[in-house]
Write a structure and sequence with these properties.
alpha/beta; Rossmann fold; 7-stranded parallel sheet; 7 helices; 41% helix; globular
Length: 248
Amino acid sequence: MSKGQLAGKVALITGGTRGIGAAIAKRLASDGANVAITYTHSADAAAALVKAIEKDGGKAIAILADAADADAVRSAVDETFKTFGRLDVLVNNAGTCIPEKVEETSLENFDRVFAINVRGTFVATQAALKHMKSGGRIIMIGSCVGERIMIQGMAPYSATKGAVKMFTQGLARELGARGITVNNVQPGPIDTDLNPAAGEWAVGQKANVPLGRYGTVDDVAALVAFVAGPESSYINGASLTIDGGTNA
């Protein structure tokens, strides 16, 4: 692993124990990075992922941190830096979605989605900037619905991802002079436990995809790996949509 494009780098992936986050962690580790992941509930899954990365010759740690808990998020960033001595890549992957029509959405659910998807991203980014140097990468995991919504029940979630998109653009303006890039990866329908390709929501989503299928977590991880790597150094403030043409 030490010979990969991220050799000597350290990456923190929030919400990295399953689905897209786990695939990103594995891919960045395979590219040579030392990896830290945060988790909220899945301690066993986190431990299994760390073990899998270590089995393949990488280094990884798992840190308990709810993305809605600002102090826990800050501590996770600091622990990553303390463990590995640097922080080069932050992937703001932690997120949640509670599909409900606006009329049926409780204020508690609304606040929860914003606390994780927007405030958690802000807190992790702010904490990471204390440790990042020139060449650093901040990568948001947004969503294609941050630009266009095709189904009902996604208004609050889509609003959070729209906020992440604009946060990316504003932050890219602030950090360019420091040599740190900020980009937003926007997946479309991806086959995960939360949104399975064979699930009840799948038919409507596939109908909106010109390719007629879901993407895979490895598709997203490959794009994140590119953005994290040296060949993407002039990509900054971009929203890179990986959705099979859903938003075309």
